[in-house]
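ok here's the first one, seq then C-alpha cells
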Amino acid sequence: MMAYLILGGVAVVLVSGSIAHYKIRKASQEIDCLFKQNEQLQQENAVAQTQVKHFETRIKKTTALLIAMGLLTACNNKAISVINPSCSGFGIIKASRQDTTETLRQIAVHNATYREICKETNDDH
C-alpha cells in the first residue's frame, strides 16, 4: 500500500514537472517572439524617425524658399493683365424669324455664355 502511495506521488511529481516544463518552454517561445517583434518595431521606429527628420528638413527648406521668393517678387511693380482670347473668336448671335424654337433656345444659351465669359469685352461689341 505504501508503495502505491509513493508510486502515485512520483507520478504526480512527474506529471506536474512535465506540465511545468511545457509551460516554461511555451513562455520561452512567446518571449522570443516578443523580442523579435520588439526588434522589428525598433527598426520601424528608426525608419519613421528618419522620415520625420527628412520631412521637417523639407518643410524648412520650402519655407525658406517661399520667403525668399516673396521677398524677391515684392519689388516687382508690373501689373499682370489677362485677356481672354476666346472672346475674339465668337460673339452675340442674332435670331431671325425663320429660326425654330430649339434654335432660339440654343442662341439664348450661346449668348448667355458669351456674356458670362466676355463680361469685360461686352462693351466693345
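and now the second one, same deal
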Amino acid sequence: MSTVVLLTHPASAQAALAWAVQFATEHRHHLHVVVTGADTPGAPSYVSPRVLAELDQALVASGLAFTAHVESRDPAAKAVALTEEHQADVLVVGIRRRSVTAKFLLGSAAQRVSRDADCPVVLVKGEHLSGP
C-alpha cells in the first residue's frame, strides 16, 4: 500500500505534505513524494539542494518509509505513473488560487492528476493562496 504526494508550488506544498504524511502514517503506507520546482509550463523547475535536504529531514523525522522523486519535465505524469506502478490508494496534491485566464492558458498539475489518476485524488489548499 502506498500514498503519492505531488509537491509543486511552495504555498501549497507544506499543507499537501502534512496531509499526506498524516494519511500515510495512519494507514501504514509507503510515501512517494514527487518534487518539482513549479507546476506552470515554462516556469523554472529547479529544486534547490536546501529544499531537498529539508524535505528529507522532515520525512525521516516522521518515521515513514518514503521515496523522493525529483521530476522537472512532467511532474503530473510522474505522479500518475507512480500511483499506477505502486497501486496507490490516494494521490495528494496541493492547490493554489489562479485566475481563470491562467488556468485556461497554463493548466496545472492538479487539474491533470485529478483527470488522469485512477485512484482518488485529494486536493489540499495551502495556507497562503496566491499566484497567477
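notes on #2: The beta strands are 2-7, 30-35, 66-70, 90-95, 121-125. The longest helix spans residues 10-27.
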